[in-house]
Specification:
The complex is a heterodimer of chains A (about 110) and B (about 120). Chain A is mostly beta strands and about 110 residues long. Chain A is built from no helices and ten strands. Chain A has strands at about 5, 10-15, 20-25, 35-40, 45-50, 55, 60-65, 70-75, 85-90, 105. Chain A is globular and about 40 Å long. Chain A starts with a strand and ends with a strand. In chain B, strands 2, 4, 5, 6, 9, 10 and 11 form a seven-stranded mixed sheet that branches. In chain B, strands 1-3-8-7 form a four-stranded antiparallel sheet, with no helix packed on it. In chain B, strand 5 (about 45-50) and strand 6 form a beta hairpin. Chain B is globular and about 40 Å long. The chains are: A mainly beta (about 110), B mainly beta (about 120). The interface between A and B is medium-sized, with 23 and 23 residues.
């Protein structure tokens, strides 16, 4: 099974800061990676698919990159409404589908 | 608009079974997989399996093999997840999510259903 290692597990940043989260796959998954945002008490929401494509309606301050085994997720200017936990998820060679462990983002 | 509406919270005794429903609307139900993902309090997301409503084919995570059954009723655009032999650590929120057929992108999610397994 493909394992997804996400880091950091939590971070604290100021409004307006640039925030970057990384996700590493245990083997090459090409660009078969998605990113989700989950706010407390809510279902996850798709933000980025195919590693770098922005889902319709998602603000452009969110972006993704990478391919193979190393991926990044960036918030270019952190906003108060971005407080959430972010997860990566691969979809290469299913099943199983696996998620990263999550990164909790809070405002300083 | 696409919607997935799940059944309400339930309390079950350990050893019992529970069946959660996920009613889809706003799209062609047989054109997309339904995935089931669960989340323990304060923990991450755990994939349980998926069903292809077109034909009913399923894939389950190894951890749940033999204990979970996913079914669907295309006449009412509803998918079901039944979990047997409940344990206390099955007390989590269960989500259904629509999965695109080629690239597994979970683009719409249900609101979640809390199942509590407690004596």
């Amino acid at each position: 099974d493909i394992q997804m290692t996400q880091s950091p597990s939590s971070l604290s940043a100021s409004v307006g800061d640039r925030v970057t989260i990384t996700c590493q796959a245990s083997q090459d998954i090409s660009n078969f990676l998605n990113w989700y945002q989950q706010k407390p008490g809510r279902a996850p929401k798709l933000l980025i698919y195919d590693a770098s494509d922005l889902e319709t309606g998602v603000p452009s301050r969110f972006s993704g990159g990478g391919s193979g085994t190393d991926f990044t997720f960036t918030i270019s200017s952190l906003q108060p409404e971005d407080v959430a936990t972010y997860y990566c998820q691969h979809y290469d060679n299913l099943p199983p589908l696996t998620f990263g462990g999550g990164t909790k983002v809070v405002i300083e | 608009q696409v919607q997935l509406v799940q059944s309400g919270p339930e309390v079950k005794k350990p050893g019992a079974s529970v069946k959660v429903s996920c009613k889809a609307s706003g799209y062609n139900f047989t054109g997309y997989y339904i995935h089931w993902v669960r989340q323990a309090p304060g923990q991450g997301l755990e994939w349980m399996g998926r069903i292809n409503p077109n034909g009913g084919g399923t894939n389950y995570a190894q951890k749940f093999q033999g204990r979970v059954t996913m079914t669907r009723d295309t006449s009412i655009s509803t998918a079901y997840m039944e979990l047997n032999r409940l344990r206390s650590d099955d007390t989590v929120v269960y989500y259904c999510a629509r999965g695109t057929p080629v690239a597994t992108i979970l683009d719409y999610w249900g609101q979640g259903t809390l199942i509590t397994a407690s004596s």
